[in-house]
Amino acid sequence: MAQQFPTVINTTLTLVEQFQGTLSPSIAIQAIQTQTPTKDATATATANALPLLSTSAVGLRAQVTKLSLLAITAPFTHSAVNTVLRACNESVLPSLVTAALLVTPSEYTKAFHSEVLVLVKTALIEFTTLVKDVKGIAEAKDQAKKDDPKKKEGDISKAEKDAVTLAVGRVWDACDAVSEVATKGIVGFVVRRVEQWRDLVRDAVEELEDWDPEEDDEFFDDLMGGEEGAGEDGGSDDDEEEDTAALHEQKKTTLRFLKPIAQVYPAILNSRLKNAGDKPLSSTGGIAKLESLMLNLQSIPDHVDEAAGALYENNWNKSAEYLKRTQRNAAQAVNSVASPWDATESADGEQKADDKFTAWSKTWMKVMDEVSKSIDAASE
């Protein structure tokens, strides 16, 4: 078995390298497209992708635990390590990669597809590091035995043991991340992302609330060193006061505009995502709605930052332009999920089911039309 060890461990490293290449986004799409199973078989496989992904991640975590213990415990048993590596090569790793490839953009959204590919690829990279550490330990012990066959095998050094412990910890973390995203599913993934974007918008609004245009003017005056002659005829001071007053008004207008924008995130989270279960996946066009929802909600924090930055620079026209972009994205996000997931259309195209969020969305649109009036003139 010791003679087979180099072949087995090198096979593992080669296999993992090939799998990493397969998980590149463009290659992953091609891999799925080249498969030609029946439509029912494809649907079944796709539906089982997340359970398989979670099970495979848990399986890899268990195997690397065994591998690390075998590596750091004397004597080094080649046959036992071979058994673990073969299990990875023949079952765990192929299942993990297959599950990742089955999480297609069309069935799980582009963002979730990309997230899974990245997480699984990370797990493979960390696993490679561990396997290389084990290979190094095995080679060192084999060389020591060859140099002195009668010498009893000793424990590995603290540095080697620490390296293995660190490597296996990273694999555990990577496997846990894969398992978590698979367990929470696409809706859980969207919830986490929307919460992140909500916090970014909330932070930007709070920063804007704390901003004092007058303090910025004082900082600028100090920076310029109080040039002589400034304000001698009273004109400069009057202009500065007018500019500061205008900035205060623009700040007030911007905050009045952003407050309902910020409300979009908790409203959608509470009414359309949390406790939604599998409704978004089973509803007609549910994945397309989630795709649109994420695309628009993701854009808003950047637009808010740009709008605030322009306002800090006293560029109201640019700020207004980004605020209007924010409004468009927010409106599209709200409209994409205005109806309940299980709503159906009547023969005349009208929705048969409405709920509180549907009514809220209509009120929100009216509010935005009102608070955007002062923005419209500047952005035209």
UniProtKB/TrEMBL annotation:
Q: Where is this region: Disordered?
A: 211-245
Q: Name one GO cellular component term.
A: nucleus
- Highest taxon listed in the record's lineage: Eukaryota
Composition bias, kind Acidic residues: at what positions?
211-244
Q: Name one Pfam family in it.
A: GCIP_N
| InterPro entries given in the database record | GCIP-like, GCIP-like_N
Domain spans labelled Cyclin-D1-binding protein 1-like N-terminal: 56-213
What is this protein called in UniProt? Cyclin-D1-binding protein 1-like N-terminal domain-containing protein
Organism name: Penicillium canariense
